[in-house]
């Protein structure tokens, strides 16, 4: 009979490493989003349909090259759909059904609960952008490769900013209120928030939606760095929303 020295199989209880927990949590959030039919409609079907419509139909005025301008704006819409609307609704219903409360009782720190959701949204956004980019190339988009680093940076910054706004909304109000408000805000930002339409109103450029669309258009169409103004607007909204979300987010 084989014998082992005392302590050979001594258990070592404790939580996993923070990077591992973040990876697992983000993967779970991304998979849950991709399995949700309503989320797919919001994050994939509608942006794809709008991209084709804006690129091929001249009803809505669009700067030339039309396909490039449409692509930049739909990139912004995709980020808003996943990072803000989708995250706010999911968080609201997770609180309603007690999911967030149960997760908070695990070894996951509260900040990691938020970071995991935002990272999961970033994965979904990356898949969205890939699909939209392929469609835009088929429609005739010619992407200047010099703008690639800036586009990647803006995608990350936009996801973080709108993710913080989504957590702020979804973590503080009732699920049914979040569902209504998130969809109303999505529609308003699309129509008069500087995404689908360039609204000549002074305060619109201070909205994160207009800032993201403008910055992406600079990089997607011209391949140059975005202006300091739009980036500063995105950072400001993200910092303020993140600070408020840490104070107002409720577990139930």
Overview of the molecule:
This protein has 252 residues and is mostly helical. It has one domain (19-248). It is 72% helix and 0% strand. The protein is built from nine helices and no strands. The protein has helices at 18-34, 37-56, 66-96, 99-104, 110-139, 148-170, 175-192, 208-222, 228-248. This is ABC-2 type transport system permease protein. Keywords: Membrane, Transmembrane, Transmembrane helix. InterPro entries: ABC2_TM (IPR013525), Nod_factor_ABC_transporter (IPR051784). The chain crosses the membrane at residues 40-60, 72-93, 114-141, 147-170, 177-207, 227-246.
Distinctive features:
single chain; 252 residues; mainly alpha; 9 helices; 72% helix
Give the H and E element order.
Answer: HHHHHHHHH
Query: From the alpha-carbon coordinates, what is the Rg to the nearest angstrom?
Result: 20 Å
Structural class comes to mainly alpha
The major pleated sheet works out as: none
Total number of distinct structural domains: 1
Which consecutive residue ranges, at least 5 long each, have pLDDT under 50?
Answer: none
Percent in helix: over 70%
Shape: globular
The beta-strand count equals 0
Calculate the terminal CA-CA distance, rounded to whole Å: 55 Å
> How much beta, percentage-wise?
under 5%
Number of helices: 9
Averaged pLDDT: 85
Transmembrane segments: 40-60, 72-93, 114-141, 147-170, 177-207, 227-246
Protein name: ABC-2 type transport system permease protein
Domain ABC-2 type transporter transmembrane: 27-199
GO molecular function, one term: ABC-type transporter activity
């Amino acid at each position: 009979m084989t014998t082992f020295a005392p302590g050979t199989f001594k258990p070592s209880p404790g939580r996993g490493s923070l990077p591992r927990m973040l990876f697992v949590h983000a993967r779970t959030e991304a998979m849950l989003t991709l399995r949700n039919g309503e989320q797919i409609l919001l994050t994939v079907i509608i942006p794809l349909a709008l991209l084709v419509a804006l690129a091929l139909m001249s009803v809505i005025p669009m700067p030339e090259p039309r396909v490039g301008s449409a692509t930049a704006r739909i990139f912004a819409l995709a980020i808003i759909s996943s990072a803000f609307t989708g995250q706010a609704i999911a968080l609201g219903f997770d609180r309603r059904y007690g999911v967030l409360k149960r997760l908070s009782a695990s070894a996951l720190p509260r900040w990691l609960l938020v970071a995991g959701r935002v990272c999961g949204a970033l994965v979904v956004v990356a898949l969205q952008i890939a699909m939209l980019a392929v469609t835009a190339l088929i429609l005739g988009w010619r992407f200047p490769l010099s703008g690639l680093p800036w586009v990647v940076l803006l995608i990350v910054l936009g996801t973080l900013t709108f993710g913080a706004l989504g957590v702020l909304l979804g973590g503080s109000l009732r699920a049914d209120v979040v569902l209504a408000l998130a969809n109303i805000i999505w529609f308003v930002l699309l129509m008069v928030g500087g995404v689908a339409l360039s609204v000549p109103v002074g305060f619109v450029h201070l909205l994160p939606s207009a800032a993201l669309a403008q910055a992406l258009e600079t990089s997607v169409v011209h391949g140059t760095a975005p202006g300091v103004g739009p980036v500063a607007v995105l950072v400001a909204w993200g910092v303020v929303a993140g600070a408020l979300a840490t104070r107002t987010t409720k577990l139930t």
